[in-house]
Amino acid sequence: MSSVVTEEHVQYCFNVLIAHLKKERFPNPTFPNDEYFAPLHLHEGLRKYALISALKDHRFAPIQLKEIVSLTCGVSLLTNFEEADDYLDWEVGKHGIWIEFKQLNGQTETATYLPEVMKEQQWTKEEAIESLLLKGDFKGKITNEYCLNSIVLTRYQSQKLEMPYKGII
């Protein structure tokens, strides 16, 4: 599996968004279609998350075509997935974390933070886990007995590249 983020990955995300907004066919990438998490192949993952982040993040208005020339896009490729021994078996600044947990009704939920999030927020491991549970819409009271000890945590590392749009729309 290639593990280096390239400008081609970032440009592909821009091109996917442009094609979607213009109602055109998605571009065909020329980089390898490696398998990543859960398992998600690179082409599908970049296409899916480029559109989700640009159009469906409820914190922001959806991106419009005219805005693309002023945007910067960042791509993080997630690598080195390892199931942790428990919910604290990871390092702030080194690992991203993906958790799986059960709601009070038994439904399984998941949530993730990239490695840089905990460092930027200056969170302890415990604060990061509580925030991640809230991000994943956990409905109950966060306790050791019910919640924290039942978390299945996968840690991973990430390589990231950010760059501005370089093309013409």
UniProtKB/TrEMBL annotation:
Q: What is this protein called?
A: AMMECR1 domain-containing protein
Query: What residue stretches are annotated with the AMMECR1 domain?
Result: 1-169
SUPFAM superfamilies for the chain:
AMMECR1-like
Instruction: From the UniProt record, list the coiled-coil ranges.
Output: none
* The organism's place on the tree of life at top rank: Eukaryota
Query: Do you know which Gene3D superfamilies this protein is assigned to?
Result: Hypothetical protein ph0010, domain 1
PANTHER family this protein is in?
A: AMME SYNDROME CANDIDATE GENE 1 PROTEIN, AMMECR1 HOMOLOG
Q: Which InterPro entries match?
A: AMMECR1, AMMECR1_dom_sf, AMMECR1_domain, AMMECR1_N
